[in-house]
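User: Teach me something about this protein's shape.
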Amino acid sequence: QLVESGGGSVQAGGSLRLSCAASGHTYRRYCMAWFRQAPGKEREGVARIATGSGNTYYADSVKGRFTISQDNAKNTVYLQMNSLKPEDTAMYFCTAGPEVSGCSGYWGQGTQVTVSS
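Assistant: First, the predicted structure itself:
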């Protein structure tokens, strides 16, 4: 089970932090990631983290602005989003799964992020 929180509305240039709490089994077994999907656009993998090693990956569109991190004590992954742009507006989904699947076997319910200009 993946439970996201932290979405909302913010002006361009602002920041938001998304959280994703996972069961201990899921957190220890799989890598975790954030995807987003905006209306009329393809789903995009934003960032992922291997919770065992801490290795991270970012899409070019968010590199330098977003940071994925983990709290092993809470089985939680975070996505810190800074310098937000209107084009970051989307539903953001937390996922978990094998790395070969892009960490996307299991999906949370999604949290909306809206950035106004």
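Now, about its shape. The radius of gyration is 13 Å. Residues 15 and 63 are 15 Å apart (CA to CA). If you'd like, I can walk through any region in more detail.
User: That's plenty for now, thanks!
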